[in-house]
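Recap slide: Putative transposase, sequence and predicted structure.
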Amino acid sequence: MGAFSNFVMSRPFQIEISESLEELEKALRHATQASSKERLQMLYWLKSGQVSSRQSLAERLGRDEATITRWVRKYKDEGRKGLLEVKHAPGKVPSISGSDLESLKQQLQESSGFQSYGQIQQWLKSELGLSLAYKTVYEVVHNRLGAKLKVPRPQSTKQHPESLSHFKKKLPLAFKFLQEEFGEGKRLRYLCQDETRLGLKTIAGRLITAKGVKPVGLIQWQRENFYLYGVVEPLSGYSFFYEFPYLNGDCFQHFLELLSADLGDDIAVIQFDQGAFHKAKALDYPDNIIPIFQPPHSPELNPIERFWEFLKSKLQWENCKTLAQLQQKLTDALKAITPEMIASLTSYDFILEALFSAAS
């Protein structure tokens, strides 16, 4: 009985594949959907004689024999076009639509955001009177609207938003005044300055792995560090950097003197944050450097912050054993960053508009 059953399961197909091997090969190369590829693969194997039974096809494709039988019958009845057509159940009427959907979209435009899809579910119920399943909310918000959890930019509770808009609004007038007052016969430039700490503690970052595979990153916790002082020019991509062991007024004064020499005859309006040593009474700003200060607790106004993020991304997962090793990797990373890249990273609209307005 067992031998007879095996014989029945393995009997060859009675099917004629009308396409040539060349046609099937071409179709396989151009197939983009997995469902189409496995059906075309079945036809190719049958046409080439590599397999001739349901059992063999089922084993090769990882499908059950009932599925193979259904596909073969569909090919006999409807040809290749019918075989490759995958029918889907008709979609459900969207559970969030019309004015409710517009209200949700508007709320998602707020930078304060939602903490979770569950919070959105609660908001829909309390604000719009919609009682929806979590799965439905996720489908609409994540899949249809493309709204995902993101790491927010930190913002100090001490920040005054009106001071940011005031700074942006007044910058064109300030730069035009400085251009008229100090820039006659000389080149007046706009730079942005800041400092950042770099050390042997590993800079972590995201890693890509296969679905279901948790990435693992090797971390070291050494505390040795140094500070990188720098300026960038959003308009041209010019930059100037110098390493110092400390973050203090003496190092800052030295940095200003080095920068002043590098600028030569040019005069630079430089945007600083309100760090204590940036405004120290003992500080002596060189004649060709004019400081302006952004509002307190507003790092997002300074485009060099974006440059620091980019630079540190180039040093992620580098477990250097000594500061000298880290300094060499930093040097290599800085050399690889072109002025065009810096301009692309730092050319904030409000700064460029101020410069163009002053020049007109």
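The first helix runs from residue 2 to 9.
The two ends are 96 Å apart (CA to CA).
(End of recap.)
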